[in-house]
Amino acid sequence: MEVLIETAMMLLILTDMALLGLSRLRPCIAASAFQGMLLGAFTILAHLHALAPRIIIIGLASFALKGFVFPWLLRRSIREADVHAELEPYVGFSLSILAGIGMLGASVWLSGQLPLAAPAGGSVVVPAALTTFFTGLFLIVARKKAITQCLGYIIMENGIYVIGIMSVVHVPALVELGILLDVSVAVLVMGVAIFHINRQFDHIDTDQLDSLKG
Amino acid sequence: MLPLLLALGIIVISGCAALTAWNKPRLSSCIGAGGTVLGCAVGIIPALEVLMGGATRSLRCAWSMPYGSFFIELDPLSAFFLLPVFFLSALAAVYGGQYLMKYKDTKKLGPAWFFYTFLVASMVLVCLARNAVLFLIAWEIMALASFFLVAFENEKPQVRRSSWIYMVATHLGTACLLPMFLIFGAHAGSLDFDRFAHSLPQPLASICFILALIGFGTKAGIIPFHVWLPEAHPAAPSHVSALMSGIMIKTGMYGIVRMLTFFDVPPLWWGWLVLAIGIISGLLGVLFALAQHDLKGLLAYHSVENIGIIMMGLGVGLIGWSAAVPSVAILGMAGGLFHVVNHALFKGLLFLGAGSVYQAAHTREIDHLGGLIKKMPWTGACFLVGAVAIAGLPPLNGFLSEFLIFLGSLRGAISMGADVAVPLIGAVAGLALIGGLAAACFTKAFGIVFLGEPRSKTAADARESGPLMVAPMALLAAACIAVGFLGFCIVPAMSGVVTGILGFDAGPELKMAGGSLGSITAASTALLLLLACLAWLRRFLLSGREVGSSVTWDCGYTAPTPRMQYTASSFAQPITHFFGSLLGTKKRLQLGGRYFPGAAEFATHTQDMGYEKLYRPVFTAVKQFCERFLVLQHGRMHLYVLSIVATLVVLLVWQLR
């Protein structure tokens, strides 16, 4: 069991690194989809000893939404906006990976400081979750395309999700589902927004949106 | 308590139902107005019972809100304020049902009714709430609902501006209420009102009193916090103006009076302060009203004036209270509170009348109207009753409350030392001056609008409003007259209310005051009988003779036009000129021709002094200060997110260090 969880966490960190290092959008979406499916499976795996219906529902919902629905929406946005790569990010790709390693280190330190009850999966879970969280934030801050930023939100939510599932055993199902719903609405809204931004400005570079400010 | 909760439920549910009937203006009006009337009818019964000497009822439920509890209570004071709330809300709803039909093709009426019902419900809840959190929630719902109602015609830039001014003003008021409740709560250990009583030591009590005066006074519209009234009242639909001016601003008064029950015997300077605010508000209010050209703007300034009169009553009461003269305290408080009800009746009536005029003549400019009493006899008659009442003339209701305040101040002035007598004499003088100016102002308003000849084409084409608009006005006019004649039994019935505030028995004193009001009623009845006799005599003398009618005397001109009539500004000119230094009226006169007169132009404009001298400089300075931070709004979302993340991470690390 421990091994399975640890493997899942390692894969999580690796997909984070992949997301930081990839420039083309399609593989990025694929990586996030993989992460989503991983988390869905992980939810059920981590609770195999005490499987409750709500855990199964959350796991399946996460699996379906993050693994299939969101990527599908994002791919559609890519197609409509005709954008396929993050060309000039604020922070370069190799530098991003270095930053990712830095974030991993910071997460390990932070998780040692955080007054959390020891999660079931041992010492890897919290650092991995924090790394994922920071990776999401990093993507939002360091990338230009609206699609990558949207991905950033999804990744960030993944990090929160892992902590939620692992650390707090009795998180009300409603809260979990609420977060899921939140993110799905966010993705939908961003999808629509991306479409409109693209139609209006012929690009989805958010750094040029400041022409809108009052 | 159950009937009141039921009433609240009916009102709120009918509002939601009206909202769902989004696309059917007639249906949503029926539901909204009908539900409000039904709810008010249900709710007024327990209020009357408590006022007639029934036991105080309360209901306390636990509530998951931190520091909050759902604690409501119906005592005589609440019941006294609820009475006009229910009465006027129901009538204004009926009126609004027909008034809003004009907008049925251009506007969605569902939201208007939704916010109307929520305004009514929140006012009821404000009067009932006995927990600070509950009170503030109701207070904010009230502010928001009225904001959306003021912004009903939001396609007009002027209306948008007015509603924003109202929004800012009301929140500045709430900003003072929050610290006040927090100070109370910190000392009492709870935010329930019943724990507040007598909990504060002196310097803090005075601070709280000042905060309450500013916070509630902003809603009530005392000078210098009145700026939103002349903006918001003209902008709102008329039944909403009637509701806002008739009752909503009274919730501010309710707040102040409710606060007074939490303190011990107040120091003398509180009374001085309240009385001074009252005199200034009353005087400036009526002066600015005289200088107005907009009928509803004029009425809005009269709200300031009447709030001033109510404050004067409270001030006289406070002075009597702290000087330990029960009769002055009781008469002052009773006069102020009685004026709350009276003002609700006649100001509601006048705003409904102004709305009726506006719909018939499509303008609120007094100088474009004229001669309407021939076209709209019902509206004219009702408006006249309201005008006489607001001018404080006997035998109508406005006179009675002012009479009580006069009585209280005179009684204190002749029997007490200088520190008490001087402000009370000031109150007498101020009240007399205000009454005279108000009479002049309404002579102007009624005379220019309803008498003479129409000054514009639209005024000439005016038609009487529909029955659903006339009936509420007629009912309110009847109520004004009835209260004017029944003062001698109403005032003794207020003993529970006044006793609740002052803490000592007000019954005997009010019974005596009722006795003097009884002689007023007798005199009024005699006057009416005399009038009836004269009318009969006139008929008798004229019977059998030929009676013809002809134009009014027209100065012997060969070709008179309506433009030769007195205008509103020329009518008020002697007074506005006399008080010119206070009003700051801007005049623009252009004379044409050198030796022979040509086309000439004359315009006057009176800006609100508080807005021009106080708020505009302050807000301009604040804006200039804030504009320095505009560099932070660079529009780069990455950097916004980055700064949020950086802050969070720094905080986290700092905490875990």
The number of distinct structural domains of chain B comes to 4
User: How many E-type strands of chain B?
Assistant: 4
User: Which two protein chains have the largest interface (Cβ within 8 Å of the partner's Cβ), and how many residues from each?
Assistant: A-B, 17 and 13 residues
Task: Report the C-alpha radius of gyration of chain B, rounded.
Answer: 26 Å
- Give the helix proportion of chain B (percent range): over 70%
Name the structural class of chain B: mainly alpha
State the shape of chain B.
globular
Number of domains of chain A: 1
Strand content of chain A: under 5%
Question: Main traits of this protein?
Answer:
heterodimer, A: mainly alpha, globular, B: 657 residues, two-stranded antiparallel sheet, 73% helix, 3% strand
How would the blueprint of this fold be written?
The complex is a heterodimer of chains A (about 210) and B (about 650).
Chain A: H1 2-21, H2 25-46, H3 53-81, H4 93-113, H5 125-142, H6 146-167, H7 173-201
Chain B: H1 2-20, H2 25-51, E1 57-61, E2 70-74, H3 76-99, H4 109-128, H5 132-150, H6 157-188, H7 193-196, H8 202-220, H9 229-235, H10 238-260, H11 268-290, H12 295-322, H13 326-361, H14 372-375, H15 377-390, H16 397-415, H17 418-450, H18 457-460, H19 467-493, H20 495-502, H21 507-542, H22 568-578, H23 580-583, E3 586-590, E4 601-605, H24 609-627, H25 637-656
Antiparallel strand pairs in B: 1-2, 3-4
Helix pairs in contact in B: 1-2, 1-4, 2-3, 2-4, 3-4, 3-10, 3-13, 3-19, 4-5, 4-10, 5-6, 5-10, 6-8, 6-9, 8-10, 9-10, 9-12, 10-12, 10-13, 11-12, 11-17, 12-13, 12-16, 12-17, 13-15, 13-16, 13-19, 13-20, 15-17, 15-19, 16-17, 16-19, 17-22, 19-21
